[in-house]
Design brief:
TPR_GEMI5; disordered C terminus; elongated; Gemin-5; 17 helices; mainly alpha; mRNA 3'-UTR binding
Length: about 325
């Protein structure tokens, strides 16, 4: 039976301020902005790419995860930079490993001594029999293969390494190490298998980032991952993030429903998305009415008239009935 994913965090994490009034407002504004960009891309107008790093990050104001490959790659580059800054860079992370002494001398580091099966596999590698090394390593237990022996299998050719790497990925998943399993699949350029590992482990945001960066915008797998992301965001109460995921998945009506679940400002954002995307259903009509009511209650009479007027203009222009 597969083990549940370990408690490690994913690459993308919702910031603490997301649920504050400021975060909610920023998320609503970003959802409207995303709707305008996506709507622009599907019409004669063109939508510009995010202009600053804040727009590409994951969070209330971020939309990079929901656009194209370039924006998703920029999002991942920003996360990479932030992780290195928090960890002090590559050198500090590997300094302890570089201090270890190896060799046959009595003073050499003995902490890395081979187990019997590993010694047998090592001997097979020494004599150039990579198939025997892989067979010995995999047959010595059901746990993950030591990384040095896994790397040695590269010497046996791509087919051998691919076979061992896939088995290693399965073993890592059984231990709950789904992110490491995904990395192994990516070493074989198998993006779909990597997405499967991440999704089974519950790392749906990581899966969405990977899919957006590596798959064609019209790929059915990308759409499915974004729908799964939207459901996960709704489950945790991140309605603005869910709305953005729904928009990216081509489901603007679901985005409207997600936004209307917020009491403060939600109806106005939902109405704006509905009007931008040309939605004319009953839920959208109610969102527009709620938005007009909110505007009127806040003393914004012109805003109330504007949203009602835009809805009526859309109806008379033949964009669909109510």
């Amino acid at each position: 039976k597969a083990k549940k994913a370990s408690g490690g965090r994913g690459l993308l994490k919702a910031p603490a301020w997301e649920s504050t009034p400021e975060g909610v407002a920023a998320g609503q504004a970003a959802a409207v902005d995303l709707a305008r960009r996506l709507h622009g891309r599907s019409s004669a107008s063109t939508a510009g790419a995010p202009t600053d790093d804040d727009e590409c990050t994951y969070g209330p104001s971020g939309i990079g995860l929901y656009l194209g490959q370039e924006e998703a790659a920029r999002l991942l580059a920003l996360e990479e930079r932030a992780s290195l800054a928090a960890d002090g860079g590559y050198n500090s992370a590997s300094s302890s490993a570089g201090d270890a002494q190896g060799g046959d001398s009595p003073g050499g580091g003995g902490g890395g001594a081979f187990r019997p099966a590993e010694r047998a596999a090592c001997a097979a590698v020494f004599r150039g029999d990579y198939v025997a090394a892989a067979r010995t390593t995999l047959g010595s237990g059901d746990g993950p293969v030591p990384p040095d022996l896994l790397a040695a299998c590269v010497g046996g050719g791509r087919d051998l390494f691919a076979s061992v790497a896939r088995e290693q990925a399965d073993r890592l998943e059984r231990r709950g190490e789904h992110q490491r399993a995904a990395l192994l699949h990516l070493s074989l350029h198998d993006v779909v298998a990597a997405l499967g590992s991440l999704r089974r482990g519950g790392f749906i945001r990581d899966a969405a980032a990977l899919a957006a960066a590596r798959l064609h915008p019209g790929d059915e797998v990308l759409v499915a991952v974004r729908r799964e992301l939207a459901a996960a965001e709704e489950t945790r109460g991140g309605m603005e993030a869910a709305a953005k995921a729904h928009l990216a998945a081509g489901r603007p009506a679901a985005a409207v429903r997600a936004l209307t679940r917020r009491t403060l400002g939600g109806a106005r954002a939902a109405a704006e998305v509905a009007l931008t995307c040309g939605l004319r259903g009953e839920p959208e009509r109610l969102a527009v009415l709620r938005a007009a009511t909110e505007c009127a209650e806040m003393g914004d009479v012109e805003g109330a008239r504007s949203v009602i007027g835009r809805w009526r203009e859309g109806t008379t222009e033949g964009e669909g009935g109510e």
